[in-house]
Amino acid sequence: MPATGSSLLSIQVSLSGFSFNSSPWFGAERIFTTPEFLRRYELVEIALLTPKCTLVPESFFSETVARTLLEDVCSLRDSDVVSWVRVPRFSSVLIYSNSIDESLSKAIAGTVLMTSGEQAPVLPEMYYLLEASGSCEEYNKILCSYMDGWLYLVIAQGRSLCLANVYRAQDFTTAEYFIFLSLKRLQMNPEVSTICFRTPLDIEAEMSLYRYFKSVVRI
Question: Would you say 17 and 105 are in contact if contact means Cβ atoms under 8 Å apart?
C-alpha cells in the first residue's frame, strides 16, 4: 500500500502491549486490526522497553567485552542476545539485550514495513530517549518513560549528558522518587524545568508532576 498520512510511525512495545505516537496502550490482538499498521511509512521507529541496557563511552567500547559491560549492570541469562547501537550525539555506545520474554516487537517489525520494504530495527527505549534529548530546546533536559514497573530516565544540560539510567519502580510514586533524587544530586531545580514523557501519563500522575515542574510534556 502507498504511504499515507504521516511519514513517521513511532511505536513503543512493552510486556503489557504497545502504543504508537500519542495513542493509548493496546494488547497483542490489535496488531492486525490497527489501521496505522496497514500502511507503509518513510520511517518506522520501534522501541522496546527493555531494562537490560547500559551506555558506555565510545572509547571504552569493544565488541569483545560488550556482554561483560552489560552484565556489570544487569542480570543476563546464558540465552540472552547482546547487541549495541552507537549514539554519536554523546560519543557513546548503548549496549542492550532485547531478550525479555516477549515476541510482540518482532511481530510488529514484521508487520509494519517502511516504503522501501525493509523492516525497522527494534531498539531500546533508552536509545530513543537519548535521541529525543537533541530536539529538546530547554537547557535542562529531563526525559522519561515509565511502564511495567520500570523508569527510564535521561537528564542532560545543554549538550552534556548527565544521566542515563533505568530504575525498578513498582509504582509511579517510586518513579517520582528516583526522578527527584537524580535532580537533587545533579543540583537541578524542577521548578524551572520541563519534564518530558514518551509513555502516556494518567491524569493523577500528570497532576502530581505539575506540583513540582514548570511544565509536563508528552513527546
Answer: no
